[in-house]
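cache lookup: miss for this entity combination. No prior model stored, computing from scratch. Input as submitted by user K.M.:
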Amino acid sequence: MRELLRLDDVLRLPRGSRLRFDDVRGTHVLLAPERTFDLDAVAADVLGFVDGIRSVDDIVTALAEKYVEDRGVIERDVIDLLDELLRKRVLDR
Amino acid sequence: MNASAPELPAPIGLLAELTHRCQLRCPYCSNPLELDKRSGELDTATWRRVLSEAAALGVLHVHLSGGEPTIRTDIVEIIAHCARTGLYSNLITSGVGGALEKLNALADAGLDHVQLSFQAVDKANAERIGGFVNAQAQKMAFAGRVTALGLPLTLNAVIHRGNIDEVDRFIDLAVALGARRLEVAHTQYYGWASMNRAALMPTKADVDRSIQIVETARKALEGRLLIDLVVPDYYATYPKACVGGWGRRLINVTPSGRVLPCHAAETIQGLEFWSVRDRTLADIWTSSPAFMAYRGTDWMLEPCRSCDRKERDWGGCRCQALALTGDASATDPVCVYSPYHARIKTLAAAEASVNAKSTYVYRSFSLGDRPASAGSPAGDVS
Ligand code: SF4
Ligand code: SF4
């Protein structure tokens, strides 16, 4: 079984996981092997912060500041999103 | 342009069949029985234009396929052009021949992902199925280089009676090679697979067992290996939304430039396919008769017409409907509501019970070398 995502984990987008803006559909997407993840503005921000340097905790802090939102709410959303992408093998830790 | 269509979806994937040439001769190959010759293949400049047009239309993923795409001498330039236009490039390769030699250059050109096929894990079995000696060692070396370059690797296993006992070994191999993803894809009976159906069809019991193995491994390997499973149609209750719905998501360009809604579409007589040699991809996507023929739901007959799943599976696969009922507009007989459904089940069971060691009709550029003992092309049930 897999270890759950922790706040001090540092994630990165491996080669083959690519963020881009889809001009035709007007949305951010994460392109990965045989998959396209549609990203809303917040999700695109989260992944924009995934850089192999910031921890999950740092990302939550940055987002809470940007959106002036309760940290607990942001934390849950960020972990849900990143965990899902880890399970799909399109993020590395 | 086409004012009558409600809202025309933008295509998301392009299957670029760069060549039909291939070192292997898999008896389930989805290429048509009549393969395009090298002399008829599109040139580099045309592929560049097609890729640029695809990107502008909304395509995100390009699947570079064949045949064996690395046989093309311009494969590096084609991948570089995908990178230039923002297209995600997926190389679908057998990993033999000159593939390894070109891999570093392909990675440098911006290749995003590699999907490597294995015919079996057992060496002798793999080489019997692929009809090519010494393939396995080359594939192993190729896989090693893919991961060493930091490229994501998918292993692709097309499953049929001849390797269905190896599903657990495919999973172990994928883990051992450091693949992120494994495709366990039960054979779809088009092209050469349709001709070899009696030699390929597994039993229901074996299918069920293989699915169980995948389900168990999925849980155990979560976060290490993503396993995508394509279940065999003939034993299903509802059909798949073939290519995500006809003319909704996918564009297939053949080596000679014909543009198809799905790779088997040419089996449907009377459809008019346009070529990228004569028209833009946008024009073909919106107005080509082949794309219009089964797009949306207007063409449907009963029981699809009044079914509430019709915008989920879009009536299933047109090519399969044709192959099994003689009518491309019919409900895919995989569907439990099709009047042909019971016959498909019986047919699958009958073919799966053929016990003799299977003899394949190997894929080739001419049917001249068909072994005398091969099973008859069992395409006709109507
Ligand atoms: S299925 Fe086999 S024969 Fe067909 S293109 Fe792929 S590797 Fe070649
Ligand atoms: S009747 Fe047609 S639309 Fe309904 S489930 Fe079957 S194939 Fe799909």
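stored under new cache key. The longest strand of chain B covers residues 153-159.
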